Amino acid sequence: MHATEINDLCRSRGWSRARLIHELRRVARESHDELPADASLRRMIREWATGRRGFSAFYAGLMGAVFGADFASGKSTAEARESHTEPELLDRLQSAATVDSGLILLLEQQTEMLRVLDRRLGAVHLLKQSEQHLAQLGDLLCHSLPGPLRTALGATAAEAAALAGWQALDLGDAAKAWKHHETAKNAARESGDLAILAHVTAQQAYALLDADRAEEAAHLMKYARESAGTAIPELMRSWLWAAEAESLAALGEASASRAALDEAERLLPPSPARAELPYIVLDSTHLGRWRGHCLARLGATEAVEDLTESLAGLDSTFARAAAGLHADLALAYSVRGDHQEAREQAGKAQALANRTSSVRQKQRIARLLSSGLS
Question: Which domain of life is it from (predicted)?
């Protein structure tokens, strides 16, 4: 059969062009092939039906599968692949060309919305949304031309990738978390923003911490901090020192961990402005929570005071952070020998971890309970 018979075949089945496109996509999915946008397919079908364009081998095969008939083709498989890829590339380049500062702002706001929802609901409800958001950003970045808008897209994509990576880590998928952070680092390099690059690099180290590779985690966090130097905001430098303190506490290096926490406190601005670093949530309450976590891991009895004070000042929307706080309190009370209070705190931590479906926190609490709290 010939391409010009498309209209007759569709009429005999009562199909619209939209139905034909749907059937083409269905068959393409079965062989894991991607087709261009609907607008491009409509243009191609119009050209086939009017005889201005012949089928490639690829589309002859697709049409044959859709209609159950043999269609003539005059092109090789390689030419066919090229012919259906070119319109797709043009469509994606056109989409990237529509990016302006207003659209980038909307995409950043979408990332922030996902952050807030993640804190309240947990990653299990949001990781797929975050990954879809990241895929869209990645596609726009891949097809954008050099210039200020590509640089801004790089920063936006890096933040979105880091969020997806953190969510994957919370769901216990360290391998996926590592890959998303690799994406984040590449996008951060496109942005040229040293603060973002330092953040996503140090955050990637948490995949190592969760895999009980604390020494490598400490090395990566130190590398992120030293690479950024003093050319980044003090709030980011404070965050980097606090993260490094946590890895040092995991290694049992009490003196170095305390010194890092002191440096984090010294650098923490009196009134941190999130507008400058929207991906960082750090103030005296959250730094106190970090200090308490480190001290609890180090077996320091004064951790209870830091953690109790931080719990009192914690915003109620930070449900997953509250789970971690209660888990730290359980450990700290256990070190003090107050096992009744430790069990109560572990129970609260478990309830919050269940509410947010945090695999990471559930695993930590399970380890605490198996160590003798229950």
Answer: Bacteria
